[in-house]
Specification:
The protein is of the alpha+beta class. The chain has two domains: 7-85, Glutaredoxin; 92-196, Up-down Bundle (Glutathione S-transferase Yfyf (Class Pi), Chain A, domain 2), CATH 1.20.1050. The protein is 50% helix and 8% strand. It has helices at residues 14-25, 47-50, 71-81, 92-109, 115-121, 125-147, 159-173, 182-191, 195-200, and strands at 6-9, 31-34, 60-63, 66-69. The radius of gyration is 17 Å and the shape is globular. The N and C termini lie far apart (39 Å). Bound molecules: 4-Maleylacetoacetic acid (M8O). The site of 4-Maleylacetoacetic acid (M8O) has 9 residues, from loops. GO terms for molecular function: glutathione transferase activity; maleylacetoacetate isomerase activity.
Length: 211
């Protein structure tokens, strides 16, 4: 019997969160291996973890005898090997729209406000995070005018939605005024109650602090 997949994750890491949603959507049972990003200078920077992901970032997913890294390629792998409950639209134009929204978040917003970047910015960190998220959301709000239905791309939950929800959490963490982005807010509210999104939420993880 194939062994159970293991997800190396941190409760409020956006990239881990995206993969958690995909795993649950696709009905994949997995073990959760917490990697604390802050404690003792970060477990992700220790050699033991870097043997799984040389970039020292979460997530890493051990599945099918492979150790996979980078959230979007992981999600694409799950899509290709477990096509049920697809997270990419069939139609190529919509597929490109979903990937574009995911990529705006994955490379255009999130890395500019992740832990490593903010640690390097010192006093400027809150203002910088606020600016990059606001600029990115302004662009996304426009992109969504031509792609959205109930969710980011039509009425199907896609890879774009998997990226949007953790980014909205970061927006609230940095007090971004969401009233300027009514389409993003509407989509966020439609996604939040879906079971895979509840299961993946930062509040519901084994390593979520019990505050
Ligand atoms: O303050 C902490 O708890 C440390 C790390 C994070 O939240 C995760 C990030 O770096 C942001 C993100 O993944 O979007």
């Amino acid at each position: 019997m194939a062994s159970k997949p293991v997800l190396y994750s941190y409760f409020r890491s956006s990239a881990s969160w995206r993969v958690r949603i995909a795993l649950t959507m696709k009905g994949i049972d997995y073990d959760y291996a917490p990697v604390h990003l802050v404690k003792d200078g970060g477990e992700q920077n220790k050699e033991e973890y870097k043997s799984k992901n040389p970039m020292g970032q979460v997530p890493a997913l051990v599945i099918d005898g492979l150790t996979l890294t980078q959230s979007l390629p992981i999600i694409e792998y799950l899509e290709e090997t477990r096509p049920d409950n697809p997270v990419l639209p069939k139609e190529p134009g919509k597929r490109a729209q979903a990937r574009a929204i995911a990529e705006v978040i994955n490379s255009g917003i999130q890395p500019l406000q992740n832990l490593k970047t903010l640690q390097a910015l010192g006093d400027k960190k809150t203002e910088w995070a606020h600016t990059v998220i606001s600029n990115g959301f302004e662009a996304l709000e426009k992109m969504l005018q031509s792609s959205a239905g109930k969710y980011c791309v039509g009425d199907q939950v896609t890879i774009a939605d998997l990226c949007l929800i953790p980014q909205c959490y970061n927006a609230s963490r940095f007090s971004v005024d969401m009233t300027k982005y009514p389409t993003i807010v509407r989509i966020k509210e439609a996604l939040e109650p879906l079971p895979a999104f509840v299961a993946a939420d930062y509040n519901n993880q084994p390593d979520t602090p019990k505050e």
